[in-house]
Recover the amino acids of this structure.
């Protein structure tokens, strides 16, 4: 049984806890938050102890693995401290607000021989996975272009917290939100060699980073990608389209109403797959799947499906996009040598 401690008892910590409780081979043994009240609330509902000192918690002798669900600027210290104490680590996305922080986290885990998995959970969403499978199968030929848009009107409800307004603390929208899309675009299209982005802060003057951007990617394969990242859109949406040499994929929406995928070959054969159909293949939630993968990787002594390098690559694309927006020039990838 892998004994797991969860650090960070906010919106995501709660969601991770409820799914981890259903993963076979894992046992939640404690919760920690700098807010004693938040830690107590969750700990009481799971009947385990609450802690408020994160450093003591992630080095606790009774814990085999930690799930880190704190704001991004805290991930590096918690990960490195936990790794030095030989704990396996599941860390929420974005891995950290800078690529160099991510590399330090990876090195600490490698030095200490512990597993590190990053919560790029979109890889477990049925439609994201279906796009990946269709492109990887080669049935549609070679990838030419991948366009993803994720647009909305800013943070509301539980997501409207002060740290999200600071790029140093959250990584800004391109990391805090769009590491999901940048990871997806790299997962589907492969490694990127150049990022060219345009953007600015148009509406949210209390945020210190762009709230709208177009980020274009040049893949090493020669394919091209474009992300429309927006927090200034009264009409929200989250979709994508893919063109390959022998066919296309249109995804009007990744989730919610209208979530479906249309695949059409160049000779006109078309099929439409609804989210409901795909969901039958995946009876567990995406968060359950990622945590199950983390626990399975520890138990089987293998690398998890989503590594520290994957988490870092998504952060790197976002960081390159910020650099490109600031300099108005293309930015070559990688930013840091592996
Ligand atoms: N996978 C997803 O789709 C998804 C969705 C939401 C959030 N997240 C990620 O989860 C992480 C947390 O986001 P959230 O929405 O739960 O934030 P939140 O603000 O709701 O909760 C964060 C909690 O961490 C606590 N905290 C802050 N610093 C701490 C420290 N050093 N040690 C211990 N506790 C500390 C805060 O008191 C708070 O309770 C972020 O990295 C975020 O990007 C992922």
């Amino acid at each position: 049984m892998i004994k797991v401690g969860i650090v960070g008892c906010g919106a995501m910590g709660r969601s991770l806890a409820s799914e981890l409780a259903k993963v076979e081979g894992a046992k939640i043994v404690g919760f920690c938050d700098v807010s004693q009240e938040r830690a107590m609330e969750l700990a009481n509902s799971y009947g385990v102890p609450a802690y408020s000192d994160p450093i003591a918690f992630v080095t606790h002798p009774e814990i085999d693995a930690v799930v880190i669900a704190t704001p991004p600027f805290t991930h590096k210290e918690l990960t490195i401290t936990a790794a030095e104490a030989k704990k396996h680590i599941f860390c929420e996305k974005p891995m950290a607000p800078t690529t160099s922080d991510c590399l330090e986290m990876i090195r600490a885990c490698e030095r200490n021989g512990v597993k590190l998995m990053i919560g790029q959970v979109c890889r477990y969403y049925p439609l994201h996975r279906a796009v990946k499978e269709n492109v990887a199968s080669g049935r549609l030929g070679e990838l030419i272009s991948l366009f993803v848009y994720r647009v909305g009107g800013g943070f509301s409800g539980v997501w409207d917290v002060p740290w999200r307004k600071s790029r140093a603390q959250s990584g800004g929208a391109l990391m805090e939100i769009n590491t999901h899309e940048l990871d997806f675009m790299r997962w589907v299209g492969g490694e990127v060699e150049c990022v060219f982005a345009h953007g600015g802060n148009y509406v949210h003057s209390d945020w210190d980073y762009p709230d709208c951007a177009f980020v274009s990617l040049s893949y090493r394969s020669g394919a091209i990608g474009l992300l429309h990242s927006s927090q200034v859109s009264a009409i929200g949406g989250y979709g994508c389209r893919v063109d390959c040499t022998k066919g296309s994929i249109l995804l009007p929406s990744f989730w919610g109403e209208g979530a479906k995928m249309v695949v059409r070959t160049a000779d006109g054969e078309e099929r439409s797959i609804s989210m409901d159909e795909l969901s039958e293949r995946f009876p567990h939630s995406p968060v359950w799947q990622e945590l199950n993968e983390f626990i399975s990787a520890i138990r089987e002594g293998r690398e998890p499906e989503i590594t520290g390098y994957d988490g870092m690559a998504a952060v790197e694309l976002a960081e390159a996009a910020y650099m490109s927006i600031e300099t108005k020039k293309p930015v070559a990838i990688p930013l840091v040598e592996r």
